[in-house]
Design goal:
single chain, seven-stranded parallel beta sheet, six-stranded mixed beta sheet, 15 helices, binds coenzyme A
């Protein structure tokens, strides 16, 4: 059949699409900047009819009526990564976290759970019947293959991205049309501490290295410190604005990469319109599925692979908490452990966790003698390589607890060092 005809037959309204949802079903949605905002908004129209509908999501960026406290019991957000709304909603019991390493998120969910519906977003269809899944390919394609019902929300503002992003009209059940502005995450202007951290990290990165830059203020700031490097490559989970600047300055060329030579490889994009314009039909940018890009064995095939992520808290032995402070859940593991471990498999590779030595305007040390009750360890101390703060670099890999304590105190803020030393002695951390 003519693909245009097929499109017409599959095109329904947002209201018709949400009418296909039944109580007790699980709906998986595309992540972050590719979240299906029209469908998630329209679902509130069914609030008086539905019960126990679970949204399986990742890093929801907007506020939706279905996650308001009064909807508890009707809609539950089960998420691989908390967004800003989830942090606030947590107290109402209508959001729950799915512990995961991102490269396995989709596969593990499908192995142990039934996904009834997948809601994604895509570009308008091309003349051969293909859409581009655009900004997210972390688990979305796996869900399209496995869900009973697949609906794509077509947004003309989405960039056409290349790689494994194509889906054919014959593979999906319905399309809805909803052209709205894209979600943007502007980079935070780096402060003095971030710039010092950036300098330390720049010294650790050789020309020809391949980089992963994680989510958060510090990884983005680091991009600014790399402007005088040559022939860097990108193998990352998330494409960011900082990478666009490095590419445009001729720093990122990918010429010395050992896999996907000449290509920046990643699995989702989250940033500003600058990034979305850059990745549109850009042959230098390759989207691959999360289970491929983030697999530590694949990450490690890059030579001189450097993974740079940030954290909220690290203890003196090298246990890294990036997703929560005690019981207060903040974000998720994402690909932090995938990429940190993968980088260490790489010949000449480095896994780096970079964080400011203090939080809350200098009142709290992010380096602690022991983690608070309820702590969630994102990266275990057995896996840790480098920790960097504005006071220097602690290389913990292969080192004893005694050596680690010393190295960590050396990169703590001077105001907290004596206290940390006392605590280490009292708790016999050696
Ligand atoms: N104790 C208490 N609060 C702390 C803290 C500490 N030790 N460290 C930070 N905070 C607070 C900050 O003050 C800030 O509070 P606010 O929201 O009230 O301003 C909040 O926690 C976030 O800190 P910030 O440094 O601004 O976070 P960020 O946006 O740079 O993100 C992570 C940092 C660690 C949360 C983020 O990188 C993450 O989720 N990482 C895990 C996933 C990952 O690395 N994936 C990699 C592949 S993309």
């Amino acid at each position: 059949m003519d693909v245009k005809e097929l499109y017409k037959r599959k095109l329904i309204s947002l209201e018709e699409a949400v009418r296909l949802v039944q109580s007790n079903q699980k709906i998986c949605t595309a992540m972050a900047a590719s979240e299906p905002a029209g469908l998630l908004t329209a679902l509130a129209g069914r609030k008086d009819e539905l019960e126990n509908v679970t949204i399986v999501s990742c890093l929801i960026m907007r506020d939706y009526e279905i996650f308001k406290p009064e909807m508890t019991g009707r809609f539950l957000n089960e998420t691989w990564f908390y967004g800003p709304g989830d942090r606030a909603n947590h107290v109402h019991g209508n959001v729950t976290y799915i512990p995961n390493n991102l490269h396995e998120a989709g596969k593990k969910k499908l192995a142990n759970d039934k996904i009834n519906i997948f809601w994604g977003t895509a570009t308008p269809m091309d003349k051969r019947g293909y859409f581009s899944l655009s900004l997210g390919l972390t688990y979305e394609k796996l869900m399209i293959e496995q869900a009973d019902l697949v609906v794509l929300e077509i947004n003309e503002n989405l960039p056409w991205t290349l790689g494994d992003t194509q889906v054919h009209i014959s593979e999906i059940d319905h399309v809805v049309e909803n052209t709205i502005p894209l979600v943007q995450l502007p980079p935070v202007e780096p402060g003095e501490e971030e710039l010092v951290i950036g300098q330390y990290i720049a010294e650790m990165i050789e020309d020809g290295a391949t980089l992963q830059l994680g989510i958060g203020g510090i990884p983005n700031a680091i991009a600014q410190s790399l402007m005088d490097k040559r022939d860097l490559g990108v193998h990352t989970e998330m494409f960011t604005d900082g990478m666009v600047d490095l590419f445009n300055a001729g720093v990122i060329t990918g010429r010395r990469k050992t896999i996907w030579k000449g290509k920046m490889v990643g699995t989702f994009a989250l940033g500003t319109q600058k990034l979305y314009d850059f990745i549109d039909t850009n042959l230098a940018v390759e989207f691959q599925q999360g289970y491929v890009v983030n697999d530590p064995c694949v990450v490690g095939q890059n030579h001189k692979m450097v993974s740079i992520n940030t954290a909220l808290q690290v203890d003196l032995t090298g246990q890294v908490c990036s997703e929560a402070i005690g019981n207060r859940h903040y974000s998720g593991t994402g690909g932090q452990a995938d990429t940190h471990r993968g980088a260490q498999r790489s010949p000449g590779g480095k896994g780096i966790i970079a964080l400011r030595s203090t939080a809350k305007a200098g009142k709290i040390s992010t380096i602690v003698a022991q983690l608070p009750a309820g702590a969630k360890v994102t990266l275990g101390r057995n896996d840790i390589d480098y920790i960097v703060t504005e006071y220097g670099v602690a290389h913990l890999k292969g080192r004893s607890v005694r050596d680690r304590v010393q190295a960590m105190i050396n990169i703590a803020h001077p105001d907290f060092r004596a206290e940390l030393r006392e605590e280490a002695k009292r708790l016999q951390i050696w």
